[in-house]
Amino acid sequence: MSYFTSKPYENWSRGGAQMTGTVFWYLDHSAPVDLMREQLPRILRDIPEWDGRTATLAVTDTTPHTILVRAVVTAKDSDDVWTVRCAVRERLITWLVTHHPHALPRITTSPAFPPDEPGASGPAGA
Predict the structure, then answer these.
(1) Is residue 75 classed exposed, middle or buried when 0-12, 13-18 and 19+ CB atoms within 10 A define those classes?
(2) Is the pTM of this model over 0.85?
(3) Which residue, 9, 21, 65, 88, is the most exposed by fewest CB within 10 angstroms?
């Protein structure tokens, strides 16, 4: 340990200013993940700030109501990766709204009936 604290060294773990960014969406379990994977490169081709290195998409988590979908994208610097992330998020949401609106998260509820109305369930309505 004393060797590293007493000798100067250079960190070579990064090879330049190229940046990697992530984009997250919370979606319904019925979201067409395979079609989203196909759509991502199409979207990125129209974003000049994307450097062409990385475009991946995966489901990274799930809850009882949603899945968490993550895209990984790259750009030459932090400004461009921000632009790419925002554009990908907006354009994929627009694509989902247009072609797969069922994939957007929603709160599912059932009708509630007062206990004295027909159709009510439970001891008071039985």
Answers:
(1) buried
(2) no
(3) 9
